[in-house]
Galactokinase
Amino acid sequence: MSESSEVVAESVAERFQQLYGGAPDGVWAAPGRVNLIGEHTDYNDGFVMPFALPHTVVAAVSRRTDGVLRLHSADVDGPVVELAVDALAPESDKNWTAYPSGVVWALREAGHAVTGADIHLASTVPSGAGLSSSAALEVVVALAMNDLFGLGLRGWQLARLCQRAENVYVGAPVGIMDQTASACCEAGHALFLDTRDLSQRQIPFDLAAEGMRLLVVDTRVKHSHSEGEYGKRRAGCEKGAALLGVDALRDVPFADLDAALARLGDEEEVRRLVRHVVTEDERVERVVSLLEAGDTRAIGPVLVEGHASLRDDFRISCPELDLVVDTALTAGALGARMTGGGFGGSAIVLAEEADVLAVTKAVEEAFAQAGFKAPRVFEAVPSAGARRMR
Ligand code: GLA
């Protein structure tokens, strides 16, 4: 388990003082996430169901009024980076600083008077693990600016601005799930989110109370080169929607899937993408119904179906992710699937509490035997969304 956000908040505030010569106006935290179900549906206006991790990005921040933005991170070697808020320009920055400055840019571009800040950050969200460390970094900065400049924006509005920062300023064509999860999740709940209008329902998700656990297995395969592939999948989905004459694949009802696939004729690749997205939206709705009916164990097979669809139709899994899923199921897990964007990153495993050790051991042994890097396994407890800590 990583250090608690409270402990990190203390050291982040102290370091802020050393760097900038005064106490911060406040300290904020925003979590990473895992997605329970609903993968690659968000840019198709569909459904997702993430929950927040206890791992957060913590930011100590003071407001400035002179147009200067100063950034520093405990996780990156290097001096304080100083920028002029007036000079922030999309795709001008290829470093980590593009995320926080992109948020300031997006807020200003939307007409909010953000006149500068001193920021020091520290993260306990594993980076490159598909657990949304970038979204957490964006959201923590957005929330701090919202509070310090009295912008009065709601969580979902901050999420939209963070997505814009990432799409336009950083230049990554991501959907809205990760930012909304970081901004809006609640402890003990998964977030059932309609990504079309960002309407949401908090679904109680307390596995421990029911004798189960959810493990995150970080394969430690960095999802490099994934952005090009991500963009290709996204473009393929958009092509599918256009060929079917709908605004987004969300508008293809599950009951009409076969007819829709038939209409796609020999567009085999588009057909596979469409089939994944339409069936995945249905799986999210099924998981919500099962959880609301108190039938939690029954979501296991739905997670497994989701993995098969991502592996065979969407084609974004990798040998390490498949090995986690297959091994965990053989060792008695209730369900397992890759989570996040794919091509590496993490898988989730749902298991009876009594089986956790055996499942973990089986996965570790299988990785050793296959000659893969040792995976990082930890239990994920649905935790709080972004908040002010002091
Ligand atoms: C990444 C993106 C999200 C979403 C997932 C796949 O995490 O940032 O917007 O598309 O991949 O579900």
About this structure: DSSP finds eleven helices and 13 strands in the chain.
